[in-house]
Amino acid sequence: MALSPARIGIGGPVGSGKTALIERLIPVFESRNLELAIVTNDLVTREDARRIQRSGLIDPNRVLAVETGACPHTAIREDPTLNIQTADQLVLAYPGIAAVIIESGGDNLASTFSLDLVDYWLFVIDAADGDDIPRKKGPGVVRSDLLIINKTDLAPYVGADLDRMVREGTAVRDGKPVLLTNCATGEGIEAVMDQLVHDVLFA
Amino acid sequence: MPETLTRILGYASDEDKAEQLHHLQHCSAVDQIVLPREDTQRHRLRVHSQTNREYLIALPRDQHLSDGAVLVLESDRAVVVKMAEEQWLRLLPGSLADAVELGYFAGNLHWRVKFHGAELHVALEGPESSYLNRLQPFLDAKRVQCLHG
User: Would you say residue B149 has pLDDT above 80?
Assistant: First the structure.
């Protein structure tokens, strides 16, 4: 029996690499024969949706945009109705999909997803934004199901200690997983996919 | 391979389920999955039961986990969800002004709260210490009292 599609949230600060992570995940979903649809959130544009639609990686009809018009976390936490409706629309149009990924607009470290909207969510931070981010215990860092430290290639240029970020991230998250990625090259993406398969896709 | 549970068959309080569950309980054949309230909102999750069996829960979106949800009911076994008891932090503001400010503060932090007379109760969705750290200025100034018990 086919499982009802999973809903996976991706949140994180502006420029941390949320859209880049999705662009890297799309081919990995495909290589594992898992169909996908995507909802992007932007403040007052459809920039991220257009970027993914034009990427050539996925049927553009499988990507829909939500314009939040206000703080991005309001549409993924306080009142996620718009995102729920948009995800429902995609599931109705593509019943065979394994998952809908819902990308939040870029926000701050306090942003979290409502579990009414998603079954599982990732929080993406940028290694070059400072290696003290994990130990500052932002709710996004602490409460997400999977913490991604992206742009690992930039760490040496800003003196960020990746081992320390992983160690402190794991400590504040009570042992929940922390993974390193470099979405510019694809490094670490298979491990992210393995984690998704284990924790929520069950494929 | 963990067993995948794909639908809620009913609730332990349903008349037709209660009798069978009662019988299975006598045979120690009811496996409980204890979930914190937050996790009952999910439609997909990997869990371990009280007998340490692993299950994959994958429900349709129109079904919602809650206390007593029956996920397996067979002649010789059952799997039932039990919601873990919620922990609350009980706070007593010292004055009306303190109460207004505490309410504003709790809302600003998106804490889930309920009211009980003059007390504000905050649901603990993480370590108590992280809530007390945020409240430290209120507690130090004795504008809010943290009640125990």
Answer: no
- Cβ contact, residue pair A115, B38, below 8 Å: yes
Q: Does the distance separating the beta carbons of B43 and A4 come in below 8 Å?
A: yes
Cα separation, A163 vs A180, whole angstroms: 10
Residue of A nearest to B1 (CA): A202
Give me A20's structure tokens: 């880049």
ipTM of the complex: 0.89
Q: Which residue of A has its CA nearest to B55?
A: A202
> Which of A91, A82, A75 minimizes the C-alpha distance to A38?
A91
Distances (CA, A) of B72 to A110, B23, B24, B29, B36: 38, 14, 12, 11, 20
Report chain B residues whose CB lies below 8 A from the CB of A115. 38-39, 41-42
**What's the token pair of residue A116?**
């009414």
**Cα–Cα dist A83/A102, whole Å:** 8
Q: What is the pTM of this model?
A: 0.89
Domain ranges of chain A: 6-197
**Spatial contact of A40 and A48, defined as CB atoms under 8 Å apart:** yes
| Domain A6-197: homologous superfamily in CATH | P-loop containing nucleotide triphosphate hydrolases (3.40.50.300)
Q: Determine the pLDDT at residue B124.
A: 92
Of B42, B58, B126, the CB nearest to A4: B58
Q: Do A120 and B110 touch (CB under 8 A)?
A: no
- Packing angle of the helix pair B96-108, B128-140 (nearest 10 deg): 150
Beta strands per DSSP E along B42-110: 44-48, 54-58, 69-73, 78-83, 88-93
